[in-house]
Amino acid sequence: MNGPTRSVIPCDKIPTPPLGYSIRLVDQLINSFRGSSFVWNKLTQEDMLGIHPRQMSGEYVAGAVLCEEFHKASFYKDHQLLPVNVLLWLLDNVDQIPSGYEGKIIPFWGTVFKQNDIPVIVVPCLDCRQGKSRMAMLPTGGLFGPESPAAFTKVLRV
């Protein structure tokens, strides 16, 4: 049975990092989601995946390049990157994951973690490949292709 199409996800607290990871404020991207809650709408969320123009053409783009683009590109100035809170909520509410996410691994760049045993920064991802949904951690130094669009939301200007 499917749940409601709209849900409010609390985002006011940074969740406890997975075992072996930590969160450092210095590592967080400047245009991460800044709100106490996020309204998830399953019907429109599929349209809220951002993909770099080079990814659209089939190229794989280094995570460091994507991070730079998130800071300076005009497209991303009107968008905020979704935090890991939304990813964790989706894993608890898999019926709310849009069918268009199937076959993709979706980075939630709004929160990044540092791996404790080695100096590597990773981005938590919703991995919807292989017929199930799970969390995956990808190094930000890795390559992100067309199957790895960023999760974001449009900034509402008041």
Key features of this structure:
single chain, 158 residues, alpha+beta, 5-stranded antiparallel sheet, 3-stranded antiparallel sheet, 5 helices, 20% helix, globular
The structural class is alpha+beta
Count of extended strands: 12
What's the rounded overall pLDDT mean? 80
Low-confidence stretches: none
Gross geometry: globular
Major β-sheet annotation = 5 strands, antiparallel
Strand proportion, as a percent range, falls in 25-35%
Through-space gap between termini: 37 Å
The residue fraction in helices comes out at 10-25%
- Cα-atom radius of gyration: 15 Å
Order of helices and strands: EEEHEHEHHEHEEEEEE
Q: Helix tally?
A: 5
Write the layout of secondary structure elements.
Layout: E1 6-10, E2 21-22, E3 37-41, H1 42-45, E4 49-50, H2 53-56, E5 61-62, H3 63-72, H4 74-77, E6 79-81, H5 84-92, E7 105-107, E8 113-115, E9 120-127, E10 134-139, E11 143-144, E12 150-154
